[in-house]
Amino acid sequence: MHVARCLPFLQVVGQIVQLAARDKGSAFRHIEPMTHAILSDPRVLRRGVIAMVCGLLAVQVLAAARLELMFDEAYYRLWAEHLAWGYYDHPPLVALWIRLSMLVFGDTEFGARALGVLATGLGAAAVFAIARDLFPRDAMTPLIAAAFWCLTPLIQVGAMLATPDTPLMVGWTTAVWALARLYRTGQWGWWIVVGGAAGVALEAKYTALFLGPGIVAALLVLPSWRHWWRHPAPYSGGVVAGLLFAPNIAWNAAHGWQTFVKQFGRAGETEWTLRFVGEFIGGQFGLMNPALAILAGYGVVGAVRGADAERRAASRLLVCLVAPLLLFFLSHSLHDRVQPNWMAPAYPALIVLAAAATVAGLGDARRARATQMTALAAAPIGVAAIAVVYLQALVTPLPLKPQADPTSLFAGWRGLASDLDALAAREGAALVLTQSYALTSLLRVYGPAARPVI
Questions:
Q1: C-beta of residue 376 within 8 angstroms of C-beta of residue 35
Q2: Rounded to an integer, what distance in angstroms lies between the CA atom of residue 414 and that of residue 71?
Q3: Is pTM, for the whole model, over 0.85?
Q4: For residues 105 and 170, what is the distance between their CA atoms, to the nearest angstrom?
């Protein structure tokens, strides 16, 4: 795409920033016609979305190629050398994911991450398709959803990594898309696609189990879907998901159920505390993008008491798919820390809810200005957050201590392995013995193959 075609979008954003800096009153007086060019003109927004997707892909390709693997990625990279139907920590899909990625793109850092970079870019098309099927009466909701996808820090930074979360997101988002197609067409065959996507997601991470309760909630809440209880298609989809998940169940049965014990054992904590609740809520608020989190909240409210019955029903489907995951991790935060990436599968539905709330708010005279300002704020917040992370990882402009800089995990391992190998050679060591899976994995990836690391 020629860069000049993106200029109208960039010029509108620039004019708004200039007005805000020069005269806040003038900015507010002129905000409505200017935001109309972005939030109401499909041509301008489409060009902006394409520009953002292309820009982000370029940055992600650069980062994926230049940054060393962090310890989790190195760990899963070792799995890719020894394919199996299960592993101690997770189901097997991440190992196959990395193996396929390296077969196509080479045995390098970029090769291990390439499929994740591609999936992140295709995610914008996925949320566009979901929004188009659920809210077909306007052209803006799908485009705004795609734009919001590009402004979500957790997705745009985390999905690049070669971890189980990326194939989980692919399977989960595909299932949500198939449910949106089912909602729009009423064709029973989409249940089979839902089951297949859910089964793939389960082979990536057990978090996908929360898709089931979400679908059951939708069958209970949506009157137009209650007839499916009497149709064999949903049950056939469940059988497909079960068949795809069966190999990992069999592997666990043959290995003392070790993955199940590790993952589901977390739910057995009994010590309750409030110390992690604020961290969970605040963390998700920031990782999603505060402006988008606010708009997603508006979307949840619209699902309960929105004026448009058709939009309300579609929003309720999305809320049903998100609610079990959100409620579980909220309860988990009452006794333990919730890792930032665990809520990521809910983000596609939340992003579409935020886009639907934006369009609904722009059509309401009482909320139009607040909606405009919130939606417009998502751009600088998201771009700034994503840019800071990538800049710090790539060129380290901020002299932070390693303990305060998560991006420090992506550098130094090749040098450490070289220094350690030189030391081992001087000492005449036959092998290197470590005390953690993280160090073992990094030294196995970056150290010489002649000296085993155990």
A1: yes
A2: 12
A3: yes
A4: 19
